[in-house]
Amino acid sequence: MTSLQREASKWLSTMQIGITNQMAYKINFLLMIIGPALVFFLIKYNLWVSIYSLEGITEIKGYTLEAMIGYQAWVLLVELLAKTSNGRNLAEDIRLGRVTTYLIYPFDFWKFHSASFLGTQVVQCVIFSLTFVIVLFAGLIEPAGVFQFLAGVGFALLVGILWYSVQFFVGMMAFWLEETWMLRVIFQITAAFLSGAIIPLELYPSWLVQVLDFTPFPYMTFYPIKVFQGEYSGSLLEGYLILFFWIFVIMMFARFALRRGMRLYTAAGM
Amino acid sequence: MRVLKKYLHVYQAYFAMNLAQASSFRMHFVLVILVDIFFYASSLLSVSFIYDHVDTIGPWTREEFLFFVSFMLAIDHLHMMLVAHGYWEFSRELRTGDLDFKLLKPIGTLFPIFFDRVRPGSALLIFVPWGCLIYFGVQAGLSPLSWVLLPFLVVVAFTLAVSIQILIAMVMFWTIESIGINFLRMQLQSLSRWPDFVYLYFFRKFFTFFIPVLIVGSAPVKFLFDYSVWQPLALVCAMILLFFWLIRVFWRIGLRRYESASS
User: Which residue range(s) make up the domain with A20?
Assistant: First the structure.
């Protein structure tokens, strides 16, 4: 067995462990992964239907009721595919001194958690596929074409890696902070608000949208949806490169924090 | 009166302990405040951005809707400051068996479980939701009687919100891993942050009579705008009594199921 095969086998085994861990408590998994996205969609579906029907509005900034519901259905799909809570336990690993275990594993801390994340992504891909079929047959979305669909899936998967990078970076803060959930919640609230997950960005003030283009937020929900809908106005390659850039920057910070943090780490925990 | 004094005395001790803890971890203290600020800003701005494109949503103007949002923020503020941490601790205590120590305390058991963690950082932010409540209340033209009733109705709505959430938390006696239950609890909380009239018929009925999260904010705010709409508020009071009773029943059943660390 070559070293590459051995490495691949470690990644695959850890991915399997990740999937098993996720599926061990099925109700818990359902409530954590599918529940929030579904309730979020339910609220927005009701809200927009009532806004359009109660006020007799036919169009808001180019969005008819069908287009708005379609947008919200795509938000649901992008979230199911991309949004991950993987890395939530990193802080606990550090605080309780469980990092020590990884020091003697033939698979380091970063690789172990990244492989677990990839395992979760496999599960999320299955959930995404099932939900896609349901919303398609419910007539909530109209895919623009096979190429746009595949490009959108690729975009959303990269957004998943971006979410994971942020979660990993936040987890590393446990080397310095007592708890890190606040940072995670701040990021989630900000991302939900500024990524177009609640309202399409066309409805935001134009100056704010211009500012947001310099941040990763629109690339986390709004642009993946536009790619799925075949309405992404920029270059697709440029979009992918921007996402790669943000993943690279955040991962570099995370790896740097891990290296610095390990110098502070005592096996007894933090 | 003596019982109330005893509980207040214990609560004072909890607050002092939490304050001492919060001042030891200053960055944590600051970050908790930031979480609340981000949450308040995103809640208010989301509604404000929608109103940039419509004049009214249902019967409410921008000011009335933002008053409702502020009302819910005031409840969320009390909730985050006084109870929110308790649910997560309850989940951990059930799993690890640490609940034993609380069961042994010479005080009503639910009190130390859900009310021993106070967030002093959130207490500092009291002026934000209440400032918004006053600002949008003035804009919405609230009557003098409504201003008098406002603090009482916030407390009544908060009581119902907490009762619903404690009852949902009781489900943790039956589950092994309880983070999902806490997620469900938070999702139900987020449903209540929008007025009942935005929901379609089935959802509105279900979340009014079965899991009454929609009346938490909608009933008191509708009453503050129009005193003839008192029936939903009466329903809130009835639901509080019902949920107090249900918590009592499920707490006893749950305790019978609890097997310390092996639960």
Answer: 3-264
